[in-house]
Design brief:
Two copies of one chain form a homodimer.
Chain A (H helix, E strand, L loop, with lengths): L8 H6 L20 H10 L2 H6 L1 H14 L5 E2 L6 H8 L1 E4 L3 E4 L6 H5 L6 H4 L1 H14 L5 E6 L1 H10 L7 H9 L1 H25 L3 E6 L9 H18 L9 E5 L6 H4 L6 E3 L6 H8 L4 E6 L8 H15 L5 E5 L9 H29 L2
Parallel strand pairs in A: 1-4, 4-5, 5-6, 6-7, 7-8, 8-9
Antiparallel strand pairs in A: 2-3
Helix pairs in contact in A: 4-8, 8-11, 9-10, 9-11, 10-11, 11-12, 14-15, 15-16
Chain lengths: 366, 366
C-alpha cells in the first residue's frame, strides 16, 4: 500500500518541488478521440453503462496510459454522477450531451434534496477508484474529481447543457435564498464525494467550475467562490483528503484568479485565453498552475503543436510548479498521434528548460 | 448645422465632463423587442431590405426615441454591411442569424478583396445617417458604428455565426500572413467607413469587437488590438472623424482592458462579467466607461431592474465619465415597459448620486 510512486512528477509539481521535466496529463484523456475508447463505449451500450461499471471505468481510465507516456491517470467518470445519485437521473442522448430525467423545476424539488449516501449511491465510483489504483500499480498517481457546486447547480436547474444557463442565473437573481440552499447541499455533497474518493485511493483531487465564468460581476464570489472555499476548508480537516493536493479549475473566470489563489487550493487550472505568465502574475506565485495549451492547437500539424507547446512552457518560465495540460478538454476529432507528439515535446523541452535553468542558477551562485 | 444639441449628456460623459445625471442608451435599442420594429421589419420583407432602405433605417433608428427618454440614437444597421459591400453578399434566414453567400474559402478569396467604395457600395448607410440627423433635430447625438477587423474576419471566414469561429482561429494559427493581409484590408475599410459616417453626420463612433475574447493569449494583441490601434491612429488625423469621441467594446476581453485603455479611444464598453469598479481600476481612469448591466436582468421584475441598475451606478461611483448601457445587446424577449423602468431609474438615481457627490465634495472644501 505504501510503495512509492514510480513517477511522482505530478505530485511534486503540484507541491512546487523540482522535477526532471514538466509533468503532463490531458483533460478528457480517456475519451472519444481514442478508437479503443469508442470500441468499449459501444460494447457498454451507453455512457452511463460505461461509467457505472467499475471494470469498464477502470479499463477506459487506463487506455491513454497504455498508449502514451502520461504523468497521471484520472478517474473516468462525469461530474454529473453526483446529481444523478441525488435522484435527478442522468442520461446521454447521442449528439445531445448530458440530460436529467428529473431536473429541478420548483422550490420543493430543491428543498427535498439531500446529500447522497456515498457507499450506497456512489459505490461504483469508489470501486472504480480502487480498481484503477490496483491496476496502475504505482506507475503514476490517480486524480479523482468533482464538479463545483455552482456548475452542478447549472445543469441541475437547466436539466441539460446550455450556452448561458439562464435559468440557473435567474434563480440566483430572483430567489437567492433558494439558490444558496441548493449550493449548501451541493457543497456538502462535493466534500463527502471527494473525501470518499480520497479514502478509496485517489492521490490528487480536482474540482471543475466549468461555468463559473457565466456569473456576472460579484455574483461569482457569492454563488461560486464561497462554496469552493467551504469545500476546501472542509477537506483540510478531512482525515482522508487533508494530505491530498487539490486542483481548482474555474474556466472563463480568469478575472477571479487572484481570489482563487487564496482559496486554499494547491493548484489552479488555467484556460487558454491568457498566458501562464499572466496567470503567475495574477496569482503572485501562491499556487502551482495547470495548463494551458489552446485545445484547437491539437488539430494543427505536428510542428505547430511542438512550437505552441514550447510557448506554453516558456510562458510559465523556469520555476517549479507547472503541470502541462490543455486549457480545456481534448476534443473527439484529435488524431491520437498528435497527443504523442505533444507529450514528447513537453517532456523533451521541459527537460531542456531545466538544464538551462540550472546553468543560469549556477551563474548566480557564489 | 451648428445648432447646439438639446441633450449633450452622452458627449459630455464621453469626455468625462460633469452632467446632471448619467446618460443611458442601449445596444440594439432599435430592435426586435419593440412591436413597432417587428411591424416595419415585416413590411420591408427582409432584414437586408430594412437595412438598405435609408427611410426604413431612419424610422427604425428613431422608434426607441419616440417611446423612451434615451440620451442617444444609434444608426440602425449591421456590422456585416461592410463585408457585404466587399462582395460577400450578406443575408439573414429566420432563426439562423447572418450568413454570407460568398464566404472566404481559399487564399485567392482573400487576396482578391479590396476596400469598398463608400459612395457607391455604402451610400445607403450614409443616406440613413443624414436622414436620422435631420429627423433627430439635435434632440440627442447620433452614434455611428462598425465591427472590428478581427470580428468581421471571423464572420467572413466562417460564413456565418459560430460559437468558436474555429476556422478564423485556424487561419491565424496556420496562415498568419494571409490572416494579416485580410485584417489590413479590413482595418483600412473600417477607417474609411467610420470616416464616411462622420462626414455624413455621426456625432460619436463605436467599434464592436464582439469576438476579441476568443483569441487565445497573446493572439489578441496580434490579431485584434493591433488593428484597433491602427484604425484609431488613422481616425485621429481624419478631418471628419478626428473630433468625434470613439467607444471601443471588446466583449469577453476584460483581461485586455488596460491595454485597450491606451489604444487611443475615448471610452471602453464593458461587458457584464466584471464590475465597473474593477474596470475603472484596470483602466486607471484613463477613459470613460460604458455599461454594464447584465442583459438578463431585463427579464426580472421591475424592482430588481431598479436595484441592479443602482448597483451598476454605485459601482462606477461618484466620478464623471459613465455612460449607462447593458453589457451586451438587449434581447428580443424583453418587455418594452422594463426599458422605461430602467431609464427612469438610471436618470433618477444618477441625479441623486450627483447631489450627494456635490455635498461630499463640499465637506472637503476649505
Amino acid at each position: 500500500m505504501n510503495t512509492p510512486l514510480k513517477n511522482d512528477r505530478l505530485l511534486r509539481a503540484l507541491r512546487r518541488q523540482a522535477t526532471d521535466t514538466t509533468p503532463i496529463w490531458l483533460m478528457r484523456q480517456a475519451g472519444r478521440y481514442l478508437p479503443e475508447y469508442r470500441a468499449i463505449r459501444e460494447r457498454a451500450g451507453s455512457f452511463m453503462a460505461l461509467a457505472k461499471n467499475p471494470h469498464y471505468a477502470c479499463e477506459v481510465s487506463l487506455q491513454p496510459l497504455v498508449r502514451f507516456d502520461l504523468d497521471a491517470a484520472i478517474l473516468f467518470s462525469d461530474i454529473l454522477t453526483l446529481p444523478d445519485a441525488m435522484g435527478l437521473e442522468l442520461f446521454f442522448t447521442p449528439g445531445e450531451g448530458p440530460q436529467f430525467a428529473r431536473p429541478l423545476r420548483k422550490a420543493s424539488d430543491i428543498t427535498a434534496l439531500s446529500v447522497p449516501d456515498m457507499d450506497a449511491e456512489l459505490r461504483y465510483v469508489m470501486d472504480a477508484v480502487q480498481l484503477i489504483r490496483r491496476e496502475l500499480n504505482e506507475r503514476v498517481p490517480l486524480i479523482g474529481f468533482a464538479g463545483s457546486p455552482w456548475t452542478l447547480a447549472c445543469y441541475m436547474i437547466e436539466g441539460r447543457s446550455s450556452h448561458d444557463f439562464a435559468s440557473a442565473l435567474a434563480l440566483c437573481r430572483n430567489e437567492p435564498t433558494l439558490a444558496h440552499h441548493l449550493l449548501e447541499i451541493l457543497a456538502s455533497s462535493v466534500s463527502h464525494y471527494l473525501s470518499a474518493q480520497a479514502a478509496a485511493g485517489a492521490q490528487a483531487l480536482m474540482i471543475f467550475d466549468t461555468w463559473g465564468g457565466l456569473l456576472p460581476q460579484t455574483a461569482f464570489d457569492e454563488f461560486s467562490l464561497r462554496y469552493l472555499r467551504q469545500i476546501l476548508a472542509t477537506l483540510t480537516s478531512d482525515r482522508h483528503a487533508r494530505e491530498l493536493p487539490l486542483i481548482l479549475f474555474a474556466k472563463g473566470a480568469n478575472w477571479h484568479l487572484s481570489k482563487l489563489a487564496t482559496s486554499g487550493c494547491t493548484a489552479l487550472g488555467v484556460d487558454w485565453t491568457i498566458t501562464l505568465a499572466q496567470a503567475r502574475h495574477a496569482t503572485a506565485n501562491r499556487v502551482a498552475l495547470q495548463g494551458n495549451l489552446d485545445p484547437a492547437v491539437m488539430r494543427a500539424p505536428p510542428h505547430i503543436i511542438r512550437s505552441q507547446a514550447r510557448s506554453v512552457l516558456d510562458s510559465y518560465g523556469k520555476h517549479p510548479g507547472h503541470i502541462f495540460n490543455l486549457g480545456h478538454g481534448i476534443t473527439p476529432d484529435v488524431n491520437p498521434e498528435h497527443v504523442a507528439v505533444l507529450i514528447d515535446e513537453v517532456h523533451r523541452y521541459g527537460h531542456t528548460l531545466r538544464e538551462t535553468w540550472i546553468e543560469s542558477s549556477q551563474d548566480f551562485s557564489p
